[in-house]
Amino acid sequence: DIVMTQSPDSLAVSLGERATINCKSSQSIFFNSNYYLAWYQQKPGQPPKLLFFWASTRQSGVPDRFSGSGSGTDFTLTISSLQAEDVAVYYCQQYFSAPITFGQGTRLEI
Amino acid sequence: QVQVVESGGGVVQPGRSVRLSCVASGFTVSRFSVNWVRQAPGKGLEWLAVMSFDGSNKFYADSVKGRLTIYRDNSKNTVYLEIDNLRPEDTGVYFCAKDLADERVEEAFDIWGQGTVVTVAS
After folding, report:
1. What is the rounded CA–CA span in Å between residue B76 and residue B74?
2. Of A50, A89, A103, which is closest to B108 when you measure between CB atoms?
3. The predicted structure's pLDDT at residue A1
4. Is the dihedral of CA A23, A29, A31, A37 positive or negative?
5. CB contact under 8 A, A47 and B106
6. pLDDT band at A65, cuts 50/70/90?
7. How far is B60 from chain A (nearest CA, A)?
8. Torsion over CA of B96, B98, B104 and B108, rounded to 10 degrees?
9. Cα separation of B81 and A63, whole Å?
10. What is the per-residue pLDDT for B102?
11. Which of A56, A64, A109, B56 is most buried (CB neighbours < 10 A)?
12. Could you read off the pLDDT of B69-83 as tens digits, one per residue?
């Protein structure tokens, strides 16, 4: 199984500052010019919300202060200027092969 | 409006079975793969199973393989998940999630339901 490891487990960032969350896959998730990597945001009491797929393609409606990047086995979710509504737990996910696996989550706080 | 709605959760005794339903609207389950994901209280996301859009492939998480069965009823546009021999550690919120693109299996999940809660307790 592909193991997804996020860092840090929790993060506190001031409003307006940059937040960076990392995700590392235990093996390559690259095929046909695409990284099979997604990012989700989950707020308390809500289902996860898709933010990025193919590592860097922003889902419709996601603010452009969010960006996804990465290569090889290392990926990053960046929030350029943290807003209060960004407080949530963030998960990375590989969908390269079954079983699909998620990172353990990163809790982002103000 | 594209959405999925889960149901079937509740309090179930250890050793019993439960069948969860995921009713899709705004899309047809015969064109999109549908997944089940669970979340134990205060924990992260755990993918459980997927049924491919064409019904030809079903994949399960190793941790629960042998106790899960995923299937669907195209006439009801519904995907089901049966969990046998329930254990206390199966307690959690069970989400249904639709694949982003049609007629594929390896995809991110763009539409999630609100989830249905399963509590395994005597």
Report:
1. 5
2. A50
3. 94
4. negative
5. no
6. very high
7. 7
8. -100
9. 34
10. 84
11. A56
12. 999 999 999 999 999
